[in-house]
Design brief:
The protein has 202 residues and is mostly helical. It has 2 domains: 1-98, Rna Polymerase Sigma Factor, Chain: A (Orthogonal Bundle), CATH 1.10.1740; 122-197, Winged helix-like DNA-binding domain superfamily/Winged helix DNA-binding domain (Arc Repressor Mutant, subunit A, Orthogonal Bundle), CATH 1.10.10. Helices cover 63% and strands 0% of the residues. The chain has helices at 7-16, 20-42, 45-61, 72-93, 123-140, 144-154, 160-167, 171-188. The radius of gyration is 18 Å and the shape is globular.
């Protein structure tokens, strides 16, 4: 670990000692980013909510084995990605099942609730919503690893090294994934790039 310990890793070390308040703080900070990652991968809000809750449940269960060898966010997003991949594999085997049917009976209580902050839309908001919908469609059409890599870079601001760790691939492969994703989006979103809705490049 670097000389200056990641503050969230320090919190997780307190969780390792049984500090539930520290864990609640981490859940509050990361529930939306984890939800975003799950939704980008699964493309279903309900299943993304269920999976996000399972991510934190696994994080809590794994707290006794936690070692602060990397940023907490890298560790947490790795759990999230692995659960997303498991869910995709499960879907291919049992397409009609719901994610929450895979939980243990003792795991039914949610760790948090995703709040709905939607409000009535003005005409400007509707127009912006339409443009953002195009962006969302373009991102959803990207290959999975490109989509996740780009989200971790743009939305969660992870470094290339951290993204490589989450995706379990080389640094050069990570840079290539993000470059290809940006180039694809630039081509797809040419009519909207001047709107400033979503910057696809640095």
């Amino acid at each position: 670990m670097p000389d200056s310990l990641d503050p969230d890793a320090a919190l997780m070390l307190r969780v390792k000692q049984g500090d539930t308040d520290a864990f609640a703080g981490l859940v509050e900070k990361y529930k939306q980013p984890v939800m975003n990652l799950a939704f980008r991968t699964l493309r279903d809000v309900t299943e993304a909510e269920d999976l996000a809750q399972n991510v934190f449940l696994q994080a809590w269960k794994s707290s006794g084995r936690y070692e602060a060898t990397a940023k907490f966010s890298t560790w947490l997003f790795t759990i999230a990605r692995n659960l997303c991949l498991n869910e995709i594999r499960r879907r291919s085997r049992h397409p009609a099942e719901s994610l929450d049917q895979t939980r243990d009976d003792n795991d039914n209580q949610p760790l948090f609730q995703i709040e709905d902050h939607r409000q009535a839309s003005t005409p400007d908001q509707l127009l912006r919503g339409e443009l953002e919908s195009k962006v969302s469609e373009a991102i959803s059409s990207l290959p999975e690893n490109q989509r996740i890599a780009l989200m971790l870079c743009r939305e969660e601001e992870l470094s290339y090294e951290e993204i490589a760790e989450v995706l379990d691939c080389s640094l050069s492969a990570t840079k290539s994934l993000i470059h290809r994703a940006r180039e694809t989006l630039k081509q797809t979103l040419k009519p909207y790039l001047k709107t400033g809705v979503w910057p696809v490049g640095k």
